[in-house]
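[step 3/7] fold_predict: job queued, chain A
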Amino acid sequence: MDIVDSGRIAFTPAVELSYLPHELQDKVVEIFERDEATPSYAQTVRFRRLLGEGKLTADAIEDIMAKPKANQKETVKFSYERIARFFPPEYSTKQMEDAIVRMLEERRREVGTMPRRRDDAERG
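[step 4/7] structure written:
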């Protein structure tokens, strides 16, 4: 698979996926590209087990991949090019992240103490 060569999926889960029929492999890739979530090794082992039981379907793959993985956390990403212009050139990405969080915390405090805007009050 090209996604293994490009490093987008780990080798061990890819080996497990190689045992699936091509149409189900295509379903995994479709979900991977749509949701930007690669299957974990445990998920691919489950695919193979269900395949052996004759129960692996595209819907089953969808359900399995929809469940959050133990090592997966929600993240927010910004491209470096997009935000670097707001920081001194010597700032590391960690310093940028810390500064952004500080600014957001300050903003939350400001908004929390600010009176409601008139148009918000009118909407109820």
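[step 5/7] annotate
Residues 22 and 72 are 27 Å apart (CA to CA).
The chain has eight helices and no strands.
exit 0
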